[in-house]
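Hey L., structure's done. Input below.
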Amino acid sequence: MTADNTRTLVHPSLPQESQAVSAIPADQPRRVGNDLANAAAWLKAALETTANGILLLDRDGSIASMNRQFTRIWRIPDEPLQTGDDAAVFAFLASRVRDPEEYERRLTEIRPDGEDDTRDLLEFEDGHLIERRSHPARLGGRIIGRVFSFADVSEDKAREAQLKLAASVFSHAHEGIMITNAKGDIVDVNAIFCRITGYSREEVIGRNPRFLKSGRQDDDFYRAMWAELIARGHWAGELWNRDRNGKLYAQRLSITTVEDVIDASRHYVAVFSDVTELKERERQIKRMAYYDALTGVPNRVLLADRLNLALAQTRRHQRCLALIYLDIDGFKGVNDIHGHDIGNQLLVAIANRLRDALREGDTLARLGGDEFAVVVTDLGGWSECDPILFRLLGVVATPIHVGRNVFLLSASMGVTLFPQDDGDADTLLRHADQAMYQAKQAGRNRYQRFDAEEELQTQTRHRSLDRIAQAIAQNEFELHFQPKVNMRTGTVIGAEALIRWRHPEQGLVMPGDFLPSIEGSELMVRLGNWVLDAALRQMTAWRGQGLDISVSVNVSAHQLQQADFLSNLERKLASYPEVDPGYLELEILETAALGGVARTSNLIESCQSLGVHFSLDDFGTGYSSLTYLRHLPANVLKIDQSFVRGMLHDSSDLAIVEGIIGLAAAFHRTAIAEGVETVEHGKLLLHLGCDLAQGYGIARPMPAGDLPAWVAAWRSPPVWRTRAVQSQQPDADARRAQKKSRLVRRPRKTRSWKWSD
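Output:
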């Protein structure tokens, strides 16, 4: 073995003792020795320059020689090479392959003295693939050994596998594949391409793919496609082409640029799939998602999209948009009488008529059942919208023939105009719906415009209701009390409970600022019950302080009309057993009592059976007759403060006050005057025979805690006490006012709530 781990190649037929050229006997001719040495050198050089690993075995299977590439391929260590141990070399070779047993078995089949050429593939443990070839070595026709050649073919096999895979993909892919050259001419296609397009391979080779164009994409589309393909080396998208029979098909296409580094050529590989059926399914799904299945017009979803788009365009162009909500009057009866099949046919006919009556660019949508919506754009205002509305009413009202049936129908429509009604799409639809119901209530077969100002008031009222409900829950209300006195005797006979709102931000809010917003609502009942409960609780507290005083509580008409009013009153009185029911007076408005005299009379009598007293508040502001007064068993008539305040300078007010006092005496009722603001008011009332009064001239409403001290300290004006011992006839001024006056009824603004003094 030489120093470079390569054995010296010798002729196998030479004697064993002649192992090197230098070992040629001196008695041999010098020329033969030189030739042999030269031949060995040439052979060694040839072995070292070959790219394959070479192993030479003699007839006995011993290693005759090997080259350096053989040791590199097999990565043979130095030790067995230096020792010349053939068995160690063979054992190492077997250890390098993945299947040593198969290697050994195959090696026994390749006999060194055999005649056959061999070729097989060895797989190393590290995954390398080595091709092994062998050929018998002959000398003069006699086999003297075997030459083995080894080549690392891992990369070649990998490329071969890739080529096979690419060929398999090209042939068996489920997508159509087309390869073109740099000029765009087709150089190859696969079978799926032929199946999709209907063209054979021979018909398309050499042609430009533009012969497949459908015409649906313009030149700008293809220019943009090629620009992106050249810039990025890839393009993907969808387009329509035309097959051999002229049928259009949709394809999802991906084009990739392929550069050949060897000859610097460029090719384009297009891979596409036929998505025509998918497109059709998408179209059907989209239609089901956006269009009404029965009439074929847009549904709510598409309406929302188009309405939002129309709103944006309307803002941009500074025009108007009308949204119409249309409902077929009495359509339910058609279904009930004729069945749903006839009803559906009728709806289709109506939808077709409405669609034909609209302008191009307007949208008709079915919202469900017999309800439709119409979006009308590019309007100058109501003047341009009204003719369209009349036209729509007309087409619905025209007789419609369905089979043997003739239907005469009408429509109720609500319409809102944008930007006068400056809302979003949902808000506009809700407003149009509200207006449609107003048209229904107004008699049908008409349209109703949405009133944005009225809607704003409604929203404000709803906000007020919510805030008042919150105030009740958070106990923000309190009662103030205004004393009622007997001016003639100078005694305090009771107090009227008046509600106030202790607002966290606004301070003390008077009832006139919040009671009107809850009139007729459930909150009026809740608040009325709170007032009654708070008054009874305060009367109990005063009784504990030694103050027994009658308290009057205002009751609204809505509260009085509740079916459980009497039972609720009984429960509250039972909850405060310290309060004598005779000290509780319920004030009801005269106008409330007139709402149902018989029922109100029965209710008053039932409450009086509990010991509770009643008074008619604001008496004289209504339109009651003597018959009504005779049938209402109220104990007290409260003269409205508007008459009392004006009686000093208005003869009509004086006449009314005198008349009410006279009625009270005639019907054995007690009269009490509100609005006594001056001593003169009291003097005149005493002259007229009215001893009981309340008003700012006596005391303003005060917190409950202040009333006991005020009662203890109050004294009536001396002039009232002086009048008490004088004649009860009016003075000269009063007589003159009476002479000029007549008992007249002047309409006053009626009130259905109190608690506002």
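The radius of gyration is 57 Å. The CA atoms of residues 320 and 379 lie 5 Å apart.

-- N.
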